[in-house]
């Protein structure tokens, strides 16, 4: 993976994520070139400097978008609003969850995205799905020129990801005739920040609500719906497909077989002993965010809460077509997780593709080289939906 900040994996991963989601290298470099020293300031770097640099970039892009919109230049406005939304996301990403700036910066992220979304043809629709007394927040990206009911995909991201970050996948699917409902699951994006819904292991419940919504649309063929999710979504999507039998196909993009086990290793947890304070301090804002996402007050209770986050039983119930995409050099979820999931699925309707260092795409969710994985994912869904 390209390490813009050598020695700082999280910041470098963020740069790769922003690039994959439609960010421009020149813009990102403009924001980050002065952060080299800040990146070496502790395990997480100087997150205040990071915030200010990305906020400056986001505001600059939004100002360009507003000027273009006032002059009637729709495409320029759309593209700059969309990138401004992406950069606002990264301006907020490493702030502590209780930082007073999180709410207004995330609101700017959503506003910029909404301004860009309405300028697509057809427009990207903002969707609010009632869910257990609250709301699942989403977008519907329609396949263009669809005169009949089209196949569709429920799309989401991972632990700290957002539906906005995944829109590039929805746009790639739309070009191939597949519509997309991109949602923030409980614990993600706007569903976490605006609805207060924390992460939960039974992802099939929220995915089922998404399916219920799609079934109300005349432009969706409810018999031809798949589910795609990345990173931690490599747990959420297979779990949902195992118990929500309306899904015809599933893509686990960065497979997760035992999410609890992954965090136990990160925490260096030992049976019968509390989690080391030194370890949690070293995790910086990553540790703060996992507590916020799970709604837990401390790391020991967070680890207990994560105990049902595994696919040992669920994998046996996966009967739909499933594609597992993984990287040989995934630093967050080892390739052994993908193999365990693949081996545990009894159905023959399964495919696994592990990208190697030699060919590229070996990093987490192929962020070192998003193609050809993205096209492979989209074409696989075209063939099965």
Automatic annotation (TrEMBL):
GO terms for molecular function: hydrolase activity. Keywords: Hydrolase. This is Alpha/beta hydrolase family protein. InterPro entries: AB_hydrolase_fold, FrsA-like, FrsA_esterase. It comes from the Bacteria. Its EC number is 3.4.-.-. The keyword Hydrolase applies.
């Amino acid at each position: 993976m390209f390490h813009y900040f050598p020695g700082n994996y999280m910041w470098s991963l963020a740069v790769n994520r922003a690039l994959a989601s439609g960010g421009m290298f020149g813009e990102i470099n403009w924001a980050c070139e002065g952060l080299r020293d800040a990146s070496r300031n502790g395990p997480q770097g100087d997150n205040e400097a990071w915030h200010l640099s990305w906020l400056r970039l986001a505001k600059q892009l939004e100002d360009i978008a507003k000027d273009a919109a006032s002059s009637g230049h729709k495409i320029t406005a759309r593209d700059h609003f969309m990138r401004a939304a992406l950069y606002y996301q990264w301006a907020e990403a490493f702030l502590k969850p209780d930082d007073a700036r999180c709410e207004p910066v995330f609101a700017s992220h959503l506003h910029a995205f909404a301004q860009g979304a309405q300028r697509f043809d057809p427009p990207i629709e903002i969707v609010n799905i009632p869910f257990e007394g609250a709301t699942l927040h989403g977008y519907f990206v329609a396949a263009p020129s669809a005169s009949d009911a089209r196949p569709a995909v429920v799309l989401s991201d991972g632990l700290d990801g957002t539906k906005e970050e995944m829109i590039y996948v929805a746009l790639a699917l739309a070009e191939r005739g597949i519509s997309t409902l991109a949602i923030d699951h409980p614990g993600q994006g706007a569903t976490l920040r605006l609805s207060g819904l924390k992460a939960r292991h039974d992802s099939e419940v929220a995915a089922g609500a998404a399916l219920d919504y799609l079934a109300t649309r005349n432009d969706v063929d409810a018999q031809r719906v798949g589910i795609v999710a990345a990173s931690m979504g490599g747990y959420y999507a297979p779990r949902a497909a195992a118990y929500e039998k309306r899904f015809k196909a599933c893509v686990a993009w960065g497979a997760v077989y035992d999410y609890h086990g992954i965090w136990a290793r990160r925490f260096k947890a030992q049976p019968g002993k509390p989690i080391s304070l030194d370890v949690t301090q070293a995790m910086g804002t990553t540790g703060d965010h996992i507590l916020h996402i799970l709604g837990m007050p401390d790391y020991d209770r967070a680890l207990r809460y994560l105990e049902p986050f595994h696919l040992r039983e669920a994998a046996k119930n996966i009967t739909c077509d499933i594609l597992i995409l993984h990287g040989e050099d995934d630093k967050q979820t080892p390739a052994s997780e993908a193999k365990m999931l693949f081996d545990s699925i009894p159905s023959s309707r399964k495919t696994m593709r592990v990208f190697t260092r030699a060919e590229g795409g070996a990093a987490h969710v192929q962020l070192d080289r998003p193609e050809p994985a993205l096209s492979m994912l989209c074409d696989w869904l075209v063939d099965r939906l």
